[in-house]
Design a protein that fits this description.
- Helices cover 31% and strands 19% of the residues.
- The chain is α/β, with parallel strands linked by helices.
- The strands form five sheets. Strands 10, 11, 12, 13, 14, 15, 16, 17, 18, 19 and 20 form an eleven-stranded mixed beta sheet that branches. A six-stranded parallel beta sheet has the order 5-4-3-2-1-9. It has a five-stranded antiparallel beta sheet with strand order 21-22-27-24-25.
- The longest helix is centred in the middle third of the chain and has 29 residues.
- It is globular and about 75 Å long.
- The model has no long low-confidence stretch (mean pLDDT 97).
- The chain binds alpha-D-galactopyranose.
- The site of alpha-D-galactopyranose (GLA) has 8 residues, from loops.
- Alpha-D-galactopyranose binds next to loops.
Length: 682
């Protein structure tokens, strides 16, 4: 395990800060001075600026105003802070929308969107790209040598919204021509367009509006990712040229289904993401923590373990969620260090200071409308600032998990369109989370990867609902198992190819029937109040006894050479296999035919992990709601012990550690307060 470089060697510390909008306070520069004082006081050292500042930077076409930004950059540098400087493309100035209507998106019905809101520019428009290049060139040229410039934050939350303007449709068709070798018959075959007489006579007929043609809609999703990355590359080209040493990122939304961030990850220097869990909404913080951790693990894995940036989080109350719950005392430290525990080298917020008006005036901020440090939130942020200042040695450390979970965007698109027809509510992500959670609870590090990732470095690969196989994945999974790896796959896997065309000759297709030693003959889904019993086979190799429950969906499978570990106990298929294992080459391939309640997954994975001697962050029993995560450089181990339960918990430590936050030596029983966290060094 190596140590990665800091995000920018200029600042070899944890970054702490957030979205900062001094452009909203140009008329009251005394507020800026107060900001600088408060930043110091709270231990904030990295502010994301200019995110929606285009109107302040270029109030009229070609007239640029950098005076206010010069002041802010200088003030940041004077107070020892840094700027994560955004390009302003996330929101278009009004003059531009009026002068160049083509920068506004067009809906499926052909209507052009009015000016307003944000994150809604056309990603193909040559004019918008040109305007971005002009402003970004000016920013890069002006601040290239500035001591405060730390990183570039391109735009804001690029998203996969549709634009069906003539530029986008033309670009889509050009992309399709390349994909299908300029052969419309190939496209027609891939889209199975003879169905309902949808044959496309020519490329000009292809419009991504027919949701019944699953292959077409999948390609449209793929294209939007490609085109978004193309836009990102175009707008960041001047930054890369003028400031080659300044890392470029853009804030991902892995919680969203609209872009394939694995593809996007290749284009950025460091992953950053915006995380908004709904703490305290259900009373079950551990579930929210596990869900969030899965995304952290995904962001770390996207750059092969390189630490990522928690670009946005909320210090207090979010604008999301059914109800608006404040973070209870302690939760801010805990949830922020959760990100660090999984590989973040930053804790940043939306937002530094509450705006006075508009959409987010009540969204949680470090500085409230009160305007000073005398708030609970400010005090908790400052406590976190002091804690992060003690974590210099954690910067650049990571983890090399032995377990990988596959959660794949392209597959998700297919599940939510093609498979949805039969699964009702497929609940793809909740199912991935259910398979992730037993590892998180056991303190076993996990990489969350997609189907294109290298599998060879893992001992165990977990693949829930891999409905759509991406090219090459079946062969790599086969190789992985044959070489001695252990794979777990579930119902509704290997059903279709990348065009959402069903495999002929039995599921799982593409050679995986042989690897898993099963044939899945039928599937059905269930209402929420229904369940089907599962019984462990007597003397099964996992050593598990007793009964479990299947819910939502069950498949009827036949063991074709595999060993039956559990069977259904009810329904007309009672006695048929529910869980099997197949010896294939030097490895093992498990097939789970149904969605089950948590108990079964925890028991099965607990047993598989101990058979495979999979490494844990700490060799200790973890009470419910407590997790342990590891960061290391191969020599020093940092174990983050975190309590998401609503009560105090005790963990019996496996060795003597130093508590990094207090400096004390700890051994034996370690007590974690409700929402308590410890960073232990060994
Ligand atoms: C997003 C955006 C921010 C802000 C926050 C909070 O993640 O990037 O600009 O709107 O949500 O609502």
């Amino acid at each position: 395990m190596k140590r990665f470089d800091p995000i920018n060697p200029k600042c070899p510390h944890m970054l702490h800060g957030g979205d900062y909008n001094p452009d909203q306070w140009i008329a009251t520069p005394e507020v800026w001075d107060e900001d600088m004082r408060l930043m110091k006081l709270s231990g904030c050292n990295a502010m994301s600026i200019c995110i929606f500042a285009w109107s302040a930077l270029e109030p009229e076409e070609g007239r640029f105003e950098f005076g206010w930004l010069d002041s802010i950059m200088d003030k940041l540098a004077e107070s020892g802070g840094y700027a994560v400087m955004a390009t302003p493309s996330g929101s278009k100035p009004a003059w531009m929308s009026r002068a160049y209507p083509e920068i506004r998106r067009v809906k499926a019905d052909g209507a052009r969107q009015p000016h307003g809101s944000r994150h809604n520019h056309c990603r193909t428009s040559p004019v918008y790209r040109e305007k971005c290049v002009i402003i970004n060139t000016k920013l890069a040229e002006r601040y290239r040598e500035h001591p405060a410039l730390l990183a570039w934050h391109a735009s804001n939350e690029y998203n996969g919204g549709d634009c069906m303007c003539e530029h986008c449709l033309a670009a889509f068709r050009e992309w399709l021509k390349v994909r299908y070798d300029n052969d419309i018959d190939k496209l027609n075959h891939a889209y199975w367009s003879a169905f309902w007489s949808h044959t496309f006579p020519d490329w000009e007929y292809v419009v991504p509006t027919d949701h019944g043609i699953h292959g077409l809609m999948l390609d449209w999703e793929r294209f939007k990712t490609i085109q978004t990355i193309d836009f990102f590359n175009a707008e960041t080209a001047p930054l890369r040229e003028i400031t080659p040493d300044v890392p470029v990122t853009t804030n991902f939304m892995p919680g969203s289904t609209t872009l394939d961030y694995w593809e996007f990850a290749k284009a950025v220097d460091v992953i950053s993401w915006d995380s908004y869990p709904n703490w305290h909404e259900t009373g079950d913080e551990a579930t929210e923590a596990a869900r969030t951790s899965l995304q952290h693990d995904q962001c770390r894995a996207m750059k092969q373990g390189k630490p990522f940036m928690l670009m946005e989080s909320v210090p207090s109350i979010p604008t999301r969620g059914r109800v608006k719950k404040r973070k209870e005392p302690g939760m801010h430290m805990l949830s922020s260090l959760l990100a660090v525990a999984h590989g973040s080298d930053t804790v940043q917020y939306f937002q530094w200071r509450k705006s006075r008006g508009c959409m987010e005036k009540f969204h949680g901020a470090v500085v409230d409308h009160l305007g000073n440090e005398n708030t609970r939130v400010f005090r908790e942020v400052s406590e976190l600032g002091a804690a992060l200042a003690k974590l210099d040695d954690v910067v650049g450390t990571s983890v090399a998990p032995e377990v990988a979970l596959i959660q794949d965007w392209e597959n998700e698109w297919a599940v939510n369109s093609g498979a949805k027809v039969y699964l009702g509510n497929p609940k793809y992500r909740p199912e991935c989370l259910a398979h992730y959670r037993p590892f998180w609870e056991a303190g076993i590090p996990v990489d969350v990867i997609d189907q294109n990732c290298d599998l060879a470095k893992y001992k165990l690969v977990v693949a829930p609902m891999v409905y759509m196989l991406r090219p090459g994945f079946a062969d790599r999974l086969k190789q992985f198992v044959s070489d001695g790896g252990t794979a777990v796959m579930t119902y509704w896997s290997a059903v279709v190819d990348e065009s959402d065309l069903c495999f002929l000759g039995g599921v799982p297709g593409s050679g995986l029937r042989e690897v898993f030693g099963v044939w899945e003959e039928e599937s059905q889904s269930y209402y929420e109040h229904e369940s089907v019993g599962i019984k462990m086979a007597e003397g099964n190799a996992l050593g598990l006894e007793g009964d479990y429950e299947a819910v939502d969906t069950c498949s009827v499978i036949h063991a074709e050479g595999s060993i039956v570990l559990a069977t259904y106990a009810e329904e007309f298929f009672a006695g048929s296999p529910a869980l099997t294992v197949n010896e294939y080459g030097k490895g093992k391939a498990y097939y789970l035919a149904a969605r089950t309640r948590d108990g079964l997954l925890a028991d099965v994975y607990g047993r598989i992990a101990s058979d495979l001697k999979i490494a844990r962050a700490i060799d200790a029993d973890l009470p419910p709601g407590v997790t342990a995560q590891l960061r290391t450089d191969g020599e020093t181990r940092f174990v983050f012990l975190m309590n998401f339960s609503n009560a105090e918990q005790t963990v019996e430590l496996d060795a003597e550690y130093t508590d990094v936050l207090t400096g004390d030596a700890v051994a034996g029983a370690a007590t974690l307060a409700r929402y308590g966290v410890m960073v232990l060094r060994r």
